Every structure is written in C-alpha cells, then in structure tokens.
Amino acid sequence: MGLFDFLKKEKKEKNKKNTEALPLIVRVENVNNILLKVSKDYNIPLSSLDFDILNIKTFIKTEHDPEFVEVDDESKIFLRDETFLRNEKNEIKQVYEIEIKQYEINDFELIGDMEINNKFTEAKFIISPKSLLINVDFSKLKNELNKKKVKSGLLIDLFDEEMNMSVEKIAAKLRIIGSLEKEEEILLCKGLDEIPTIQGEIIYHYKRNETSIKKELIYPVKKDEILIEIKKPKPGKNGRNCKGKIILVEKVKDFEIPNIGFDKKTIKKEENDEKIVFIALKNGYLYQENDIYTIKDEIEIKQINIKTGNVEGAEENDIKIDVKESDALKEAIGDNTIVETTTLIVRGNVGNSAKIKAKNLQIMGQTHKKSKIYAKKAEINIHKGYIEADELKITRLEGGIVKANKVIISQVIGGEIYAKNVEIELLGSHLTCYALEEIKIHEIKGSENKLAIAPAKVLGETDIEKFQKKLEEIKRELRINVEEYNKKVKILKENKNSINELKKLYLENKSKGINTSPTIIKKIKEYQLFKEKTLEIKEKIEELKREINELEETIDKFQNIVLLAKIISFSPWTSYNRIEFDLIEPPIKLTYDTKGNEGACGFKLKDFGDAYKIVKIRIKDNNDSSSKG
User: Cα-Cα-Cα-Cα dihedral of 281, 286, 292, 296, to 10°?
Assistant: First the structure.
C-alpha cells in the first residue's frame, strides 16, 4: 500500500468515526446554530448535515402572564386573532425537536430560490423545474418547505394558509404529470403588515418655493390649487412578521387642529376624515392680514429686494405689482432680486444682476447694465442692461442690449439691437443694430454706427446654419442613392432577357401541369425582390428631392427678406456710419460707409443678375419710393 492510499484510508475511517455520532435528536429554538455547533464539534462539513423536524411546540407570552406557555388547541385561536398579533406586549416563539443526520442524495431534491422582504412579513419560494420530485406527496413537499422556513428563522403553522393551498395544488400536479414544466411560486407566509401612524401636520403648499435662505415676497397661486393642508392625526397599528416578531409603529404625537381664517369669496375649505384642505378659487397671490387668508391680484410695495424677498412663478397668475420707489438715488428692484409677475410697474431703478420676467412691463427709472429682463410688452425709460421682448419702447438706450420683434427708441447713445423692425427717433453714436426687415431713423446726429440687415444675427446663426447643414447632408444622401439606383438598374437590364425566358418556361410548365425546378423559381423571386428594392430607392430619391426643394425654398425666403429689407433715414446721413446687408447664400456681407453727402434717403439691396449691390432709395414723408439706381 502506498503512502497516499494509507492517508485516504485514514481520512475515510476518521469521517466514519465522526458521522457515527449521527443521528442526533435535539430540542432547539435556532436550528442553524445547532447545525453549526454539530459541524464544529464533530468536524463534519455543514453541507454534509441534514435534519428532519420531529415535533414543533409553539409558546406565547401575553401582557397578563409574564411566562411563556405552550399553545394548546384552545389557545391556537390567538395565533389568528389580529388584536392579539398586533399587541406589542404579546410574544411568540417556537421550539423544534429535530433529528440531525447525514445528508444523502435520494429521489427528492427541492431546488429553487427563497425570497424574503426586508421586514420578513412575506416569504416566497420559487421551485425550479430542475428539482428532483419523484413520488412526492403533500406531506413530503410541505415538510421540506418547512425546513427551509425554519432555517430562515420563520415560524411554522403561522400565516401559512396560502402555502398549504399552493402545496396541495403542486402535489396534485406532480401526481398527474410527474414533474414541473415551469417555475412554481409558493407564498410560504404572509405576516401582518403594520399600518403606519399618521401624525398631525400642517403643510403650507403655497410656500413650496421658499427655503430658509430664499425668502419670497408674495406667494403666487392658481385657481384650484391646494394652498394649505391639515393632516388629521391617526394612530397606526403594529404589525407582526413571519418570525413572530412585532413591528412597532410610531406613537401619535399631540396635535391640535388650528383654526384658520379665510376669505370665502377667494378660498374654499374641504374636509374629510383624513384631512382639511384650503383651495384657491382664483388666480392671484395669497395674502394674510389680521390672521385672515385671501387671494388678491394687485399689490403695491415700496421696494423689492433681498430683505422683502423674491417674486417667483407669478407671470401666469394675473398678478399686478406696482413698485413705488421713485428716488433716482435708490433702487426699486434691488440687486440680485428676482421678480416674475404678469404686470409690473417699476417707478424707479432696476439694480445690479436683478432678473425680471413679465408679460407687461413698465420701468420709469433706469436698468443696471448687468440686469436681465424678459417681457412680452415693455416700456423702459433708460435702458443699460439686457432685455428680450416682443414689443418694446425705450426712451433712451445707453449701451444696453435689446432683442425683440419690434423696437421703438426715442434716443440712442450706444448699444446693441437685434430685432425684426427698428425705429429710432434720434440716433447718436456707437450703435450696432441688426434687423430683419427695416431700420427706420428719423434723425441722425452721431457717427460710427453699424446698421445691418442680417437674418442670421436676428433669427440666430445656428438656425440658418442648421438649414444649410441639413441641405448639404440631404444632397450627399441623394448622390449616394442615385449611384446605388443606377447600379441596380444596370443589373436589372442585364438580366431582364434571361429572367423573361425563365418566366416563359415557368408559364409553359404551369399550363402543362409540370413542376418547374425550385432553382428557376428562386431566381425569378430574387429578381422580383431586387426590382422592388430598386423601386424603393427610386421613391427615396424622389423624397430627397422634395426635401431639398423645401429647404432651398426656406433659404430663399431668408434671401428674399434681405432683398426686400430697407435701411432709411428721414434726415441727412452723417459720415462714418456703416450700412450692411448680409446675404445667406452665398454668405456675403455687402457694406457701404456713409460720406455725409447722401442727404435723407434709404438703402436697400438690389440683384443685378450677375451681382448684388447696395443702392439708394428715395423717401417721401415716411414712405419709400423708387430706387435712385
């Protein structure tokens, strides 16, 4: 006998000696702990151990009895009584008498996955079709599932009514077909879920945008919006999981339902068993005076600043705000303040980095150069900041930036304008003005102004570039498809005669009742499919051509805008002012610098066939007439 053979024999004898201690019969509460202990004490791998449940004893301890007592037939009713199970002073435990034995491979092996939720109130076992289930009856299957429950710390014969029904069905299925065709899910237990406690709470929904560091001046609200919600306190109920452990819920805290005063014309109150809600009957802002809530749509205030708080989200709520501060040395709208409302009247100045958003806006003072304003219709006395609007009137533009559809300015002292139509009463110097259709000036006093008809600047360079880029892409795709189409047409022509011969042969065979070779039929079908693919490419080519025409028409419209646009002065032009027309296709900028001898006239772009030129046009009153050439 060799050395290795001797060692193998010694190991085999040692394992036999260790397993001679089995089977062991023990009474325990925790099966896993005893299996680990036996494995350690007898040096037996845990995987080599198995057990059978011989007996189960269930014990309960109630608030009236400090000792655990065994559940008999009469007291079993407690294990199904909801009131008993939810009582945190009642306890449940089980003791198992088990026989620990050596694991043996036989004709029964339950393979699958155990799924238990976090609170152990629900446990499932998913039985795999790979399970070995020969001659398995209800009792054998239930016992094996109970073993899995015990190893997971779950109680037996508690919350398992549905498990018994599922086991019965599966056992019946196994009697008929002998095995499982698919996975079977068994609900091992479903504990008693807790019912959460509802604490009394007042929720001021109208303050949703307010934080500890972000103060609001007013609270814009909309019709049918919940303004305030009072949750009524309601005690919850404890739960109990499949381990028999109680799941405690939070105790109800003391809460007194407040008495909230409100204006019944603008706010309504609704109440049920769970809550009280106060709902807006109109758009506006929520106002509280003398502990009475009401909704108003107009507010007058001295100033809006960091101390008073912002006004946000009110541009769609039909709210009118009148800011009264008119001192030229103070700010009506303070630095870094946000104001969003429907109608805003500012009788003074707008501060540094202030942001305004309104449908209708009037600023009687001046705007700071770092302020930003967004409006539908606006009137500003002195503008130095940034504004976007549909319609805009400015008394004096002093270096500010303007983006709008229609702009009327009384006096310009520098700045930038991007608009469809611009009208200026008195033009000083250092203005950059980009327009889409017309620039109209009543009197020019200064120089070094740039007056341009520039669709790309007004509409956005990215939009026009997008059209041009898309046009190039479609033209490239068209070329590829045309090349592919021509190749396929050539192949069709080259094979047309031979396919016609095959078709003729097929028809002759058919008339004679003779079966045609599958190879011939396959070739005819392939040719037909190839032809259909070619026709699809042809349709794609036509579609691409239509897209190209549409895009070229769109780009032409931009081009036509430039050709129809005018730059006009009703007073004589001063020198050193640049007139510019920016073409889209080709992308050319045509410029003309005034000399000071042009007189009162306008300028437009004219197409001479081989070239575009800027030409002067006569004006009479406020209407254009014919070109001077």
Answer: -70
pLDDT of residue 626: 42
Angle between helices 518-564 and 461-512 (to 10 degrees): 160
What angle is formed at CA 130 by the lines to CA 124 and CA 131, rounded to 5 degrees? 65
Largest CA distance in the chain: 128
Q: Which residue is listed with tokens 């059978």?
A: 52
DSSP assignment, residue 381?
A: E
Q: Which of 544, 593, 551 is nearest to 573 (CA)?
A: 593
Considering only CA atoms, which of 136, 155, 154, 159 is closest in space to residue 127?
136
Kindly report the pTM of this predicted structure. 0.59
Residues 6+ apart with CB under 8 A from 132: 107, 108, 109, 111
pLDDT higher at 423 or 524: 423
Identify whether the C-beta of residue 73 lies closer than 8 Å to the C-beta of residue 5.
Answer: no
**66 φ, ψ to 5°?**
-75, -10
Q: Which of residues 423 and 498 earns the better pLDDT score?
A: 423
Nearest to 361 by CA among 329, 385, 327: 385
pLDDT greater than 90 at residue 192:
yes
List of E strands, 173-317: 184-190, 201-204, 219-221, 226-231, 239-240, 246-247, 261-262, 267-271, 275-280, 284-289, 292-296, 298-301, 311-314
- Summarize the confidence of residues 564-574 as an average pLDDT: 95
DSSP state of 330: S
Compute φ and ψ for 245, nearest 5 degrees.
-85, 145
Q: What share of the chain is helix, strand, coil (3-state, %, to 5)?
A: 30, 40, 30
The 10s digit of each residue's pLDDT in 586-619 is: 778 999 999 999 999 999 999 888 888 999 999 8
The CA distance from 549 to 554, in Å, is 9
Q: For residue 459, give both structure tokens.
A: 């509409």
Distance CA 112, CA 108 (A): 13
**How many contiguous H segments (helices) and E segments (strands) does the chain have?**
8, 38
Residue at token pair 């341009």: 452
Tokens found for residue 369:
């150069």
**Residues 438, 426: contact at Cβ < 8 Å?**
no
CB 570 within 8 A of CB 442: yes
